[in-house]
Design a protein that fits this description.
3 domains; Immunoglobulin-like; 20% strand; Helix Hairpins; 5-stranded mixed β-sheet; Cytochrome Bc1 Complex, Chain D, domain 2; alpha+beta; elongated
């Protein structure tokens, strides 16, 4: 858990995490104290004032006014404290500093895509500089997703046809896990990403190197891993296996056959429902049609090497 972590929460690694944690623990400890006090009082009164004889008729009890006022006023004060405190934290979490570095986030079944201000895109790998406010402008291309980084204490729903945003400022370099916390289909649990927090110079160097040209097959291998294609086509039987697919004869669900050439591979990526392989349903989303032609050519070149 780290020095700042606990059994309840991971190590706090953003500027807003401490405030979120303070509110969480205040609510937790206050609720625990009230719970113990109420259960303790129930046990005590149950034993102390139990009926000892069947003929016993208890004397009516009229509670004092100060006691009535106490159990009305004290909970009201606690609720107002939590509301006021929570509202302040909510506003801070949803109001990014004006000098924030903005990154576009696109969610799709089942990967995260990040686009930077110079046009560089990456899948499932988010690079940010340490000590810099980062604002994520997020949208989904298919179903509801949710972007959650436990170490930063940020979580925001990512919705089709709508832009939502969340911001954070990482306090230390390192790698941190991103989860999708809204069930989004078969491979929901595999919809993971990594936040790489690096120094400012390392971040600028990384942005610059992403513009270099890679051979098609190398680019395709990189994309294949980034977009977690192996989850369905290598590690499991969710989708057809791709090893040795190029040039082979494929039997389709309608009884016909087709040769797996470049055109077939391209069509299967951008329109996966066009020619379904026998024994497989339409599991693959059509979101990969948004890839550039260079990226598509790279994926096809890589698949040909398998």
């Amino acid at each position: 858990m780290g020095e700042n972590g606990s059994g309840w929460l991971p190590e706090a690694m953003s500027t807003v995490a401490a405030e979120v944690d303070a509110l969480f623990y205040f609510t937790l400890y206050t609720s625990t104290i009230i719970f113990v006090a109420v259960i303790g009082a129930m046990i005590y009164f149950g034993i102390r004032f139990r009926r000892r004889d069947e003929s016993e008729v208890p004397t009516p009890v009229h509670e004092p006014k100060w006691l009535e006022m106490t159990w009305i006023v004290v909970p009201t004060i606690l609720v107002m404290i939590v509301f006021t405190w929570g509202f302040k934290v909510f506003v801070k979490l949803h109001t990014a500093p004006p000098d924030s570095y903005e990154i576009t986030v696109r969610a799709a079944q089942w990967y995260w895509e990040f686009e930077y201000d110079n046009g560089v895109t990456s899948a499932n790998e988010l690079y940010v500089p340490v000590g810099k406010a980062i604002k994520l402008n997020m949208s989904a291309s298919d179903v509801l997703h949710s972007f959650f980084v436990p170490a930063f204490r940020i979580k925001m729903d990512v919705i089709p046809n709508r832009v939502t945003s969340v911001w954070f400022e990482a306090t230390d370099v390192g790698t941190y896990q991103v989860f999708c916390t809204e069930y989004c289909g078969t491979s929901h649990a595999a919809m993971l990403a990594t936040v790489h927090v690096v120094t400012d110079s390392e971040f600028r160097q990384w942005l610059a190197t992403q513009n270099q040209d890679l051979p098609p097959a190398e680019l395709g291998a990189q994309l294949f891993n980034q977009y977690t294609c192996n989850v369905c086509h290598v590690d499991t039987a969710v989708g057809p296996g791709l090893t040795g697919i190029f040039g082979s004869e494929r039997k389709l669900s309608d009884g016909t056959t087709v040769i797996a050439d470049e055109d077939y591979l391209l069509e299967s990526i951008v329109d996966p429902g066009a020619k379904l392989v026998e024994g497989y349903g339409l599991q693959m989303p059509a979101t990969f049609g948004s890839l550039t032609q260079k990226q598509l050519d790279g994926l096809i070149a890589y698949i040909k090497t398998l």
